[in-house]
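SEVERITY: medium
COMPONENT: batch folding queue
REPORTER: lab tech (J.R.)

DESCRIPTION
The queue accepted two submissions in a row. Attaching both inputs and their returned structure tokens so the on-call engineer can compare them side by side.

ATTACHMENT 1
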Amino acid sequence: MYPPKHHQEYHIENIKEVAKAYPFATLISAKENTPFITHAPLIFHGEKLVGHIDRNNPHTELLKNNNGITTIFSGPQTYISPSIYTTKQLPTWNYVIAHARGKVKEIKDPERIKQSMVAMTDYLEGETQKFILEINDPRMDRLVPYIHCFEIEVEEWEGKFKLSQDKNPADIKNAKEELIHSNQKNITNFVDKLFERHFK
């Protein structure tokens, strides 16, 4: 069976934690065998996921009317070199991914749209919130007509957590440390080079 059971996560709350920690999602819909893919943050409102995209995005036509949708939340991932293991192994790739499948509905009420924007800002600002989006800010009213807001009723969660679970405890520990180290190092190097190329 694919994927192997030991790479599947069956605890729904663990899967949801990926979506909470990595809310920038890939949204996938299909129409007449043509995929529509958009990237946007999604946050929880109860058990539903709520998001916004530009109203000019052609994907908006599928983000309404109970259309089916799949969203992907990508957590940390990295190449695992056999050199980190205490036993003889082959190269592999470890990753943490959450999928949510469900039905999507458009949110049209301007007040609900503004409330969802405030809630998303509060969540993304985190515990040390340095910015508060005021619902009565006049700029909000000017922005709402350009926003397509939607909610997703999740029908199925799926977690794919490949974390060297089939290895011995020492190798699992080494793989965990490599996942942390590699992600910290990769993002620093990548962002430095990205900014150097685009802002030189």
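ATTACHMENT 2
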Amino acid sequence: MRSRGAFRHHPLHRLKVARSQRKRFPWMLFILPLVMWFGFRAVRIYSEKPQAILVLGGSTAALEREKFTAEFAREHPGLPIWISSGSPRDYTKQVFSEAGVDVRRLNLDYQAVDTVTNFTTLVDELKQQGVQSVYLVTSDYHMRRAQIIGEIVLGSRGIHLKPVSVPSEQPQEPLSKALRDGGRAVLWVTTGHTGASWSRLHGGW
């Protein structure tokens, strides 16, 4: 009886292996460039220095996010700070002023009615300002959803993001909420509509 080792050297076995490798080869030709592209993109995003700070407001955690950002902004002097639907204007300016941050760096916008519109209301203005990468500041429990939306909306304009999470004691948001708003972000990219009115009926933010 032939051993398994001997069978491996049999011509029929070698032919079978060769055919199997040929079948896999086209897939490798497709997958390898894809892997290389994603790797190159990840390295580029990691090495790219953000040109602005984007803070998501619109929730009860807005004040904590702004206080955190005020300290973060001191470590990144010169970067403009965009706050989407944050605390009242005078209060926000007071928070940054007391932290020693020049309030002229602030860009306060109050158009957003939920997390999706945090991005859609500002992305074109960021693009016009020549911003190609931003620090994205929001609460840790909210970051997964914000990242999914941001990658779609900001990415549609060639803007990358680097997440900066604000610590909290809140539990992580359900994945279903992130996927729902991810779908709304895709809807905006393809049609220009965000489904914001539907979101308000279901609690917003």
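NOTES FROM REPORTER
The mean pLDDT is 85.
No errors were logged for either attachment.
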